[in-house]
């Protein structure tokens, strides 16, 4: 029986400043999708509100727009998936084997507060499924609690976009919070690569996280191998 992956994408199209556009970092979805497709896994998309998932403009320019991401942009069927994502209430978590939180700065606003996404994550984790994230996607795990009331990330090894990378990207002053610091405050054992922007994956049992956009393929491969 084929494994089924649920990709979580943002609905947020801009920073607090409406003139500063953001959204899904497309390659973080496309790279993982390619890895899972090669394994012939089933794949679905969900977002906190359902419907359109906007794209981060910075990720659609050279040299960040690679062949994988261009493949999505040039495929009407795949772009349609990003305009018609499911709502959490549409999802039966019992049918999924893994959840994968994509990034892009938009997720910092809507991922942490989605009770529906948290419920899916809790169900999947407590059934023995894989919970994973790449880059800012780990913001979706900040407030996820298990049935016993404990935070899923407490006491677990994790990575995600670092504060150093926010500074180097030139956007630290526009962040609604420091995600790295918030993870540490919740008792997570945060880890990052010695150098910024290089691939880095941390696996703590069924919790698998990648630090930045360059980590998406490696994260997906670890998920695939565990499945």
TrEMBL record:
GO terms assigned for molecular function: glyoxalase III activity; transferase activity
Keywords of the record: Glutamine amidotransferase, Lyase, Stress response, Transferase
Matching SUPFAM superfamilies: Class I glutamine amidotransferase-like
InterPro entries registered for this protein in UniProt: Class_I_gatase-like, DJ-1/PfpI, Prot/Nucl_acid_deglycase
Domain DJ-1/PfpI: 85-223
PANTHER family per UniProt: GLUTATHIONE-INDEPENDENT GLYOXALASE HSP31-RELATED, PROTEIN/NUCLEIC ACID DEGLYCASE DJ-1-RELATED
Similarity-based family: Belongs to the peptidase C56 family. HSP31-like subfamily.
The protein, known as: Type 1 glutamine amidotransferase domain-containing protein
Organism from which the protein derives: Gluconacetobacter diazotrophicus (Acetobacter diazotrophicus)
